[in-house]
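Invent a record, attention on tokens:
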Amino acid sequence: MSAAIDEYLAGKDPDATERLLQFRDLVLACGEVDERVHRTEVAWARARVFAAAFIYSSRLEIALDLRRRVHHPQLREAFPTTKTVITHRLTITSDDQLDDTLAELLAEAYDTVGPGTRTR
């Protein structure tokens, strides 16, 4: 783990911290990414950010950028961020919610939004 992510996670809820690390593993399994650790969130990008996560109290909050609107049991809201990209906010409260369905959506975000959307 990088020092930057260690700093971000310092003092956060242990269960939510473990979920963020599990989500991070799902992101890193997609392929080469640029991990951007900020004071308030961690984001992952290729040419463009396609996923982000932050810990709020004991919950893991995730943002996935997709080129279509999807429904998911943990979906909190979905809203357009550009003409072609819809950001999906999900709330993760248990480990079993980091499942294959979420991994598939993450891979879709990596493949379709991560490379950038201007040439599509």
User: Anything to note?
Assistant: The domain at 3-113 is CATH 3.90.1150 (Aspartate Aminotransferase, domain 1). Strands lie at 34-37, 42-45, 49-56, 59-66, 75-80, 86-92. The radius of gyration is 13 Å. The mean pLDDT is 94.
